Amino acid sequence: MIITYLRSLFARFVRRAETERELEQELASHIAMRADHLERVGLTRVEAERRARIEFGGHERFKEECREAIAGNFIDILIQDVRFGLRMFRKSSGVTVIGILTMALGIGATTAIFSVVDATLLEPLPYPQSEQLVSIQDDFLGMGAHDVGISEPEWQDLQRSGIFEYVSPTWFDENNLTGSSQPTRVRLLIVAPNYFALLGAQPQLGRAFDPQDHSPGFIPEVVISDGLWKRAFGNDPNILSKSVRMDTDLYRIVGVMPAGFDAPGRTAEERNIEVWAATSFYGAPLSDHPARNRRNLPTAIARLKPGVTIAAAQSRLDALVASLQKQFAADYPAQNSWTVRLMPLKERVVGNVRQSLVLLLGAVGLVLLIACVNVANLLLARASVRGREMAIRRALGAAQGRLTRQLLTESLLLSLFGGTAGVAILFLLKDFLLRLVPENLPHLNEISISWSILLFALVASVVSGVLFGLAPALQASRLDLNHALKQEGRSTGSRGRARTRRGLVITEFALSLVLMIAAGLLLRSFWDLLNVQLGFSPQSVMSVRTRLPSPNDPNTDKYGTASQEATFVRELIRRCKMLSGVEEVAIGDTASIPLDESLRDLKLISEGQFLLTVEGHDVQGDHSTVVERSSVSPDYFHLLGIPLMRGRLFNESDYDDTPPVAVINQAMAQTYWPNEDALGKRFKAVKAGSPWITVIGVIANARTQSLAQAEVPQAYLDLYQTGAKRLAILLRGRFHTAAIADEVRQQVQALDPTLPVYGAQTLDETVSASLSQRRFSMELVGLFALTALLLAGLGIYGVISYVVSERTHEIGIRLALGAQRRNILHIVLRHGLGLAIAGAAVGLICALIVSQLMASLLYGVRPTDPLTFAGVALLFIGVAWVACYVPARRAMKVDPMVALRYE
Amino acid sequence: MGNEAELLPGTLDLLILKAVSLGPLHGYGVLLRIEQISGRALLIEQGALYPALFRLVRQGLLKASWGKSDNNRRAKFYELTSKGRKRLREETDGWNRLVAAIASALAARPQEI
Question: What is the pLDDT of residue A181?
Answer without folding.
Answer: 67
